[in-house]
Amino acid sequence: MLNFSMLSKSLIREWRSGELTLLFMALLIAVACISAMNNFTDMAKRELEQGAAQVLGADALVKSNKPIPASWKEKADALRITHNTAVLFQSMVEGQNHLQLAQIKAISTPYPLQGSLKIAKQLNEVAGVTRTNAPEAGTVWLSPRFFPLLSTDIGKTINIGSAHFRITGVIREEPGQTGDWFSIAPRLIMNAADVEKTKTIQLGSIVTYTWLLKGSKEQLEQLHDFVNKGLSPQQQWRDSQNNILTLSTTIERSLNYLYFAILMSLILAGVAISMASLRYCQRHLKQVALLRCFGASQNLILQLYLGNLALVGLVSCVLGALIGYGLQPLLIKWLGGLLPHAKQQFTLGPFFLSVTTGFILLFCFSTGSIWKLRKVSAISLFRQQHLVWGNSTYITYLLALLLLGGLAYYYTFSLKLTLIVMLGSVAFIGLALSGLWLLFGSLTQFKIRIPLNWRFGFTNIARNMEDSALQTIGIGLALTTILSLILLKNHLINDWRQQLPAQTPNYFIFNIEPEQETALKNYLELNQVKTAAFYPIWRGRLTDINNRSVNSLFGEQVKNINALQRELNLSWSTNLPEGNEVSKGSWHVPDANEAWVSVEQGVAAQLGLHLGDNLRFHIGDRVLNIKVSSLRQVDWTSFKPNFFMLFKPGLLDDIPHTVLTSFYLPPEKQSVLIEINKQFPNVSIIDIAQTINTVQAVVASAANALTLISSFALLVGLIIVTLAILSLSETKTQETQVLKILGMTRRTLLWIRSSEAFLIGLYSGLLAAVMAILINMIIAAAILNSPYVIPWLVFITVPLSTAVLVVALTLVIQQRQYQRKLRS
Predict the structure, then answer these.
(1) Alpha-carbon torsion 606, 611, 615, 619, what sign?
(2) How far apart are CA 106 and CA 176, in angstroms?
(3) What element of type H or E holds 730?
(4) How far is CA 49 from CA 566, 641, 694, in A?
(5) Taking the CA atoms of the chain, what radius of gyration do you get in angstroms?
(6) For 353-387, what is each residue's pLDDT tens digit?
(7) Does the predicted model carry a pTM greater than 0.85?
(8) Running DSSP on this structure, what letter comes out for residue 121?
């Protein structure tokens, strides 16, 4: 029976000899990488949930078209949930002889329950002060757009219905402003106690009551169960979970890359541990044979070496997980744009997950090699022996790959991504083995035509096919993962930068009357302001699909489909808009008399629409039946007007409409906006410059994150390449000594040693380049939905660079081993 004293002495001896150093380093870096990414995903999850709550202004809310029932409020009080009600309605506001439709929010203290409400005391004050209370009775706060529309200022009076109010603040930041930009009138916040005296809410008025809630997840779940029984179709429960309906494309792609990096890190760790443990076991065959001479049983040997691995694994996994936590400040600094409110926090979940993952990888990919040590006999002390690869070995590694796939799916929750990477890895192994046999095994008959200096390398690879396969798979898989990460990182960063070229539109202007379009266009051209196309806008609701109402088609799910919960912005265009691409059907329908509509492919998939389907729209008092002629892929990141539905040109011209466009305005031309408000007082302008700045910060932060992850992969990959060379270095040293005895010159020996390393490196690099680009192409098409441009230069630079690196490392390692033997 193995005791702890024997185990600890064995471990100390192994550590001093350096036998476990590479295994320790490989596992340490792999776990540190996984820990850093676990912390990143944990921070991202908290940030997204917090961001969703800030957008809502609460942890959860209920939207209703009627006052909140008293029984619901009593239940919230019983559960000790903080709650408040905001009333939203629209009304005309009069000031300085100007009229303007306003979106009014009546609030009471405290508000908001989550998020930030910032109010400035002067128009030229940009930041504002955070407030948690309603305006004083008789006062209001206005959004910046209100002031030029009403020609008013702080301290002046405006009229809402039958009441007068004094302006005391400018709204700089407000939670809850989500939805359709083009239907948002200028915002106004007032005290809920003042609503009644305005007399604007009458029988039949359209009013939205928003019940804000703040409490723990358990409290809110209990309240949701109670409230859900009485929710009508006109009432909706929303919380920080279901409010994250879609992430921005940049964040979503960053997280997809992160999941891909986790997958690649798991594979890198598996390969590193497998090669390190194989080398460790190979170098201990004599020691095991000696132990068998002293009567050690198979179980004792198994316990001894598994115990050594377990202790090394425990130390390296814990240290690696702590290093991952130590990188939090760097992550927070680098990811300021991606996670602006992230805070350093030690949570046990990611720590235990990282340590557990490290242990699973360690024992999955090392047990097969350790298990073979049980069968080493005492006679092995007197003869050269290698670990034999039998059926049990292949079964062990197959099970390890299956478990690795399970781990990968647990981390990513993406079956598609997991299958792409795992099948890609298996395909690489199959390609590497078959390629070795074809190139080196079946072509040995032609070796006489190969120059002598290269012939030894060619023959050695063919003669030691198993060893060559091990080196090729180790180096190639490591290079495939690293290259995949770097190529995908470059693809994403280039794609993001192309999405935000110079002079990306930073203003939307809408509510333009058709007769104003020419005058506005001329004014903007006169001031050298380049605009996007002008689009007519109608608002309509999709009510029927193929003569069935959407309510009967989707049932309870209809309230989860945003396109069916509101009026859509509808338009037409003679030409296919920039950033749109027809994926199915035809943009121009030959029949000039046929009414048609082109549908964005995302909403088409959500609604189950196909070419030729009949849709019914209600546009004002007009009912329109129309056929789907095409599906479009739309670039929603272009900051230009885009639409779910584009109709046949001229089809809606007899229905009243307004016009929309977007344009880029540099900071030095801000006076143009003031003049537009004066000349066209009815139009509405939305400033999205801050949104663009935020996206640019996210892109910069995401690039930093991707670089950090790739750096971890490079370190692990370098260890794997070193292990692959070390695995056969002793055999190569013996061959070199024999060739010296046979009279080979030093220059010839150098060529012989280099040729095999060069061929292995060249072949591994070529396979890695092919497989990495294939994986990237599939991920770009299937997950990122972006076109992939093949970097053809990689097929030359990567194989040659890998060959040179393997040759250099081989020569350095063999030289160090030779010098060590001379000293001993």
Answers:
(1) positive
(2) 13
(3) helix 729-741
(4) 25, 29, 18
(5) 34
(6) 888 888 888 888 888 778 777 777 776 656 666 55
(7) no
(8) S
